[in-house]
Design brief:
single chain; mainly alpha; Arc Repressor Mutant, subunit A; Methane Monooxygenase Hydroxylase, Chain G, domain 1; 2 domains; two-stranded antiparallel ribbon; 5% strand; elongated; disordered N terminus
Length: 202
């Protein structure tokens, strides 16, 4: 991730940076979320975090502590344009993509680079090391399944509004639902198989 641009050396607030190409901008993980969310018309830090908590957090999280500094950094780099639009007596900055920002987002979306896929699961980590305590393996799988069932219930609630979604979020929801259902089914089948194997050993 590139270091923040010095405020005094960046472009003036609310200005684009000519026609300087931006397709090779090295966007941070949080910057990708922000540019994409603003392209979907979520234009304040609060709006971005609210939508993240209901959507991308299942596979690509972003916190307030990441979003607000990155908004300022992207503005300094000329990828966003911010304007003060107070609401209800409270300060509020509304952002839009500049030409450079749209080019940077498009450059990342079109990038042929290998796509990062990370899965962090304590349940899978316990399963990996379960040879040290095999008698807890089935219970660990049951806990994993219960967690995925809770997640599926949350996704089902979101799916009730699928007709109101853009195509990208809707397709991503379908993929996430399918992956979650697969994990539930795998845990159920494996629990049954291990239980049957345990009985034959008795």
């Amino acid at each position: 991730m590139k270091p923040p641009t010095d405020v005094n050396s960046g472009p003036a607030r609310g200005t684009d940076v000519g026609s300087e190409p931006s397709r090779d901008v090295d966007l941070s993980a949080t910057a990708r979320v922000i540019l994409g969310m603003i392209a979907l018309d979520n234009r304040t830090g609060y709006d971005i975090k609210t939508v993240v908590d209901k959507s991308t957090r299942y596979f690509w999280a972003a916190s307030y502590g990441q979003i607000y500094p990155e908004l300022r950094r992207l503005e300094q780099q000329g990828l966003l344009r911010g304007s003060s639009q107070p609401s209800g007596g409270r300060a509020r900055t509304v952002y839009e993509l500049t030409d450079r920002g749209r080019q940077a987002l498009g450059g990342w979306l079109a990038s042929p680079a290998d796509q990062l896929f990370e899965l962090r699961s304590e349940g899978m980590l316990k399963l990996f090391f379960s040879d040290s305590l095999p008698e807890c393996r089935v219970e660990n799988l049951a806990q994993m399944r219960a967690g995925q069932e809770r997640k599926l219930a949350q996704l089902d609630e979101i799916r009730e509004h699928a007709t109101e979604m853009h195509d990208g979020p809707r397709l991503t929801l379908e993929l996430g639902t399918g992956l979650t259902q697969f994990l539930i089914n795998w845990c159920l089948e494996t629990e049954s198989r291990l239980a049957a194997e345990s009985k034959t050993k008795e």
